[in-house]
Amino acid sequence: MAESHGGAKGPAAGAHTEADGGHHGGGFPPFESSTFASQLVSLAIFFVLLYVIVSKLALPKVGGAIEARQNKIEGDLTEAQKLKDQSEAALKAYESELASARTRAQAIGNESRDKANAQADAERKALEEQLAAKLAGAEKTIASTRAAAMSNVRGIAADAAGQIVQQLTGVVPDAASVNAAVDASLKG
Amino acid sequence: MKIDPIHQFNIEPLFTIGHIGNHTIAFTNSSLYMLVAVAIISLLMLASGTQLVPGRLQSVAEISYEFVASTIRSTAGSEGMKFFPLIFSLFMFICVSNLVGIIPYTFTISSHLIVTAGLALLVFFTVLIYGIAKNGVKFFKIFVPHGVPGYVLPLVMFIEVLSFFLRPVSHSIRLFANMLAGHIALKVFAGFVAMLGFSLGAIGWVGGVLPLALTIALYALEILVAFLQAYVFAILTCIYLNDAIHPGH
């Protein structure tokens, strides 16, 4: 019947049929009261079904997933903060360790330099003393050698003077006067 | 070629379930699309996984969840979360059935006043019963606004009471009328295309471009309306429930 009305006339014609006490398919469907009971029953069944599914299964599941993600993100953030704090503390510890190591190294360097200097000084002093002693010994040897040589020179000179006097005069002079003469000439 | 924009709203009984009094209770095409809506929502919410990094389906499920939850929190406060399952069911049921109904050859559940009236009355009685159960007599403070001079108070109270009892009417008719009018308009404009083509031949097919463009534009609008009316229905439910939770404005 609706087919036969059609077009723009539809709603008006539908209302007219409704007023006539419209039977199924004849009137404007949304106002077809004979379908109300069926629709309300279906609505009640399916909406209650939906409500049960949503409240018992769907929302707890999706809400749980969202909450789990939220917790995970928060947990990760706190974990990251903790790790960051740890790494900062480690960096600070490393820096202070480095600084103390540096001062310690400096101290050790200074100490060993001082020790080396002291040792070197001591060795030099010992060497110098040794050298001085050797020098003194050598000087003494030189002096004694020279004195010996000088006394030998005097003997040779006295001998030579005696020989010369004997050659010249034929008389052997006495040693005492020759020595005296040599001494006098050596001094002179 | 006849255009019958009303045909799409026909209720076709598929099989009979039983009888209540002298009413025959049938499983109709409307029942079928209610079942489809429930199935789609269940599938979306239950089959979408609970991964840490959500996929597409899970994102849709979670966005729906967050969207409804934030709507309730902003209009009815955190106490309104008690009604989260109800409002979520209402929103998803209307939204999904509207969006399904926009597909050609399908049936739109909410284009029938009896269905939207059923949902609106459900909200109305929930508000009424919960409001009285929670607040007792204080619930009726919603009819007595603050700071109204004594001599106009009876008039204001009369208007408040009237508007309270008209809520289910406006609540249901808004959704019903929007869906009905949208679908009729869509059908009429789409019918023009075929009518022009069949009656005027080649010229008609060229002339049909204009109503076709209009049909496409209307179709886009209807998709928006389908979602928007579900949202409006849900947010009005939140506002009405807010009265029950916090009476006295």
Structure description:
The complex is a heterodimer of chains A (188) and B (249). Chain A is rod-shaped. Chain A is built from 4 helices and no strands. In chain A, 86% of the residues lie in helices and 0% in strands. By secondary structure, chain A is mainly alpha-helical. Chain B is mainly α. A two-stranded antiparallel ribbon of chain B has the order 1-2. In chain B, a hairpin with a 2-residue loop joins strand 1 and strand 2. Chain B has helices at residues 29-46, 56-76, 84-101, 113-135, 153-207, 209-245; strands spanning 13-20, 23-28. Chain B is globular, with a radius of gyration of 22 Å. In chain B, helix 4 runs antiparallel to helix 5 (153-207). Helices cover 69% and strands 6% of the residues of chain B. The N and C termini of chain B lie far apart (56 Å). At the A-B interface, helix 1, helix 2 and helix 3 of A face strand 1, strand 2, helix 1, helix 2 and helix 3 of B.
Share of helical residues of chain B: 55-70%
Strand coverage percent of chain A? under 5%
Please report the distance between the alpha carbons of the first and last residues of chain A. Answer: 179 Å
**Which segments of chain B are poorly predicted (pLDDT under 50) over 5 or more consecutive residues?**
none
- Average per-residue pLDDT of chain A, rounded, comes to 83
Task: Give the ordered list of helices and strands of chain B.
Answer: EEHHHHHH
Number of helices of chain A: 4
What is the overall shape of chain B?
A: globular
Give the structural class of chain A.
mainly alpha
Largest interface: A-B, 48 and 56 residues
